[in-house]
């Protein structure tokens, strides 16, 4: 079980909620991440429903790498489509990236996040320090706690078969224009892909990150969240899983508050960075195009992305 202080500071520090939290900390040296070298976190939304309790043997629905580099004063965020396939280290067969957590849990309970982390760093050629898994309930609660997020789109979303929380359907429709979404609709906005594709969904997920960042900089957001802190701690202690330490989260927030807007870089593994591979049985899958991958990773994380 995650410590209550740990969850509170995760909510505030990792989501970059308020400079007030950072000012409240002293300047003593932090263990773990030194605050000076590159630090990369695998952030994944897991497709865990209310009846699945604490299991990690579930698919990942949103996958991103967040990497900070104090030397160049930049933060990079890369979205990885869930349909992409990678080869785990020491194995021959490709696995779909959104199933890596499940395969890792089959090897050993609790090994899933590290199996996923190891596979991604092996295929991308960059070291990943930590992981953070967030389930649907945590996402909804956090967005509602800050009063929702604003998004704009120039196309219509019409998903009559959007899956609900109980394996049924909850049709999702959103007209073109600007909308303020509550937690549940923000989740649907980030997850829907019927009618378009996983690449557009990746762009919507990055748009949600930008909307969260914008909302969290508003002056009245911190008092709003702070007032709800006790209830949030009770609600989310079992919905967020991470191997990050409290000190590392504080250090991340300290650094993020110093980064200018031009230092924030986001991108997705879109079609131009992906190639089709035909497996021996004749099935076509999507894999990263290694000839293009270095340019993409360098543009998002910097030339020294490998660490």
Give an overview of the whole structure.
The protein has 307 residues and is of the alpha+beta class. It has a single domain, classed as LCP protein (Aminopeptidase), CATH 3.40.630.190. Helices cover 37% and strands 22% of the residues. The strands form five sheets. The chain has a six-stranded mixed sheet, with helices on both faces. The protein has a two-stranded antiparallel sheet with strand order 4-5. Strands 7-10 form a two-stranded antiparallel sheet. α1 packs across α9.
The 3D shape can be described as globular
Largest sheet: 6 strands, mixed
Q: Gyration radius, to the nearest Å?
A: 19 Å
Indicate the CATH class. Answer: Alpha Beta
Number of domains: 1
Could you say what the CATH architecture is?
3-Layer(aba) Sandwich
Overall pLDDT: 81
- Beta-strand percentage range: 15-25%
- Percent helix, as a range, is 25-40%
The count of β-strands is: 14
Order of helices and strands: HHEEEEEHHEHEEEEHHHHEHEEEH
Question: Uncertain regions: pLDDT < 50 for 5+ in a row?
Answer: 1-31
- DSSP helical segment count: 11
Q: Quickly give the structural class.
A: alpha+beta
Show the helix and strand layout.
Elements lengths: L3 H11 L4 H5 L15 E8 L13 E10 L4 E6 L5 E2 L8 E2 L3 H8 L4 H13 L5 E6 H10 L3 E5 L3 E3 L12 E3 L2 E5 L1 H9 L6 H19 L4 H7 L1 H8 L3 E3 L3 H11 L7 E5 L5 E5 L5 E5 L1 H12 L6
Helix pairs in contact: 1-9, 1-10, 3-4, 5-6, 6-7
Protein traits:
307 residues; alpha+beta; Aminopeptidase; six-stranded mixed beta sheet; two-stranded antiparallel ribbon; 11 helices
């Amino acid at each position: 079980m995650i410590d209550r202080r740990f969850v509170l500071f995760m909510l505030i520090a990792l989501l970059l909620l308020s400079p007030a939290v950072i000012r409240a900390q002293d300047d003593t040296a932090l263990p773990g991440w030194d605050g000076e070298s590159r630090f990369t976190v695998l952030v994944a939304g897991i497709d865990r429903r209310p009846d699945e309790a604490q299991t990690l043997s579930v698919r990942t629905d949103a996958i991103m790498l967040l990497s900070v580099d104090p030397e160049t004063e930049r933060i990079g965020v890369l979205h990885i489509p869930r349909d992409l396939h990678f080869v785990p280290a020491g194995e021959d067969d490709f696995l779909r990236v959104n199933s890596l957590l499940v395969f890792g849990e089959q090897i050993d309970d609790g090994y899933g996040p590290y199996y996923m982390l190891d596979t991604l760093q092996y295929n991308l050629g960059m070291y990943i320090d930590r992981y953070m898994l967030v389930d649907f309930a945590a996402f909804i609660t956090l967005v509602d706690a800050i009063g929702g997020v604003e998004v704009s789109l120039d196309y219509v979303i019409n998903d009559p078969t959007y899956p609900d929380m109980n394996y049924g359907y909850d049709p999702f429709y959103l007209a073109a224009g600007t909308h303020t979404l509550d937690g549940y609709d923000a989740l649907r906005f980030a997850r829907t892909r019927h009618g378009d594709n996983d690449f557009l969904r990746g762009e919507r997920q990055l748009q949600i990150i930008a909307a969260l960042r914008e909302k969290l900089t508003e002056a009245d957001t911190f008092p709003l969240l702070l007032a709800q802190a006790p209830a949030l701690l009770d609600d989310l202690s079992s919905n967020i899983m991470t191997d990050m330490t409290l000190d590392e989260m504080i250090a991340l927030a300290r650094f993020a508050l110093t980064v200018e807007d031009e230092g924030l870089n986001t991108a997705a593994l879109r079609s131009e960075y992906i190639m089709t591979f035909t497996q021996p049985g004749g099935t076509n899958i999507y894999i990263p195009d290694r000839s293009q991958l270095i340019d993409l990773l360098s543009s998002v994380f910097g030339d020294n992305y490998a660490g």
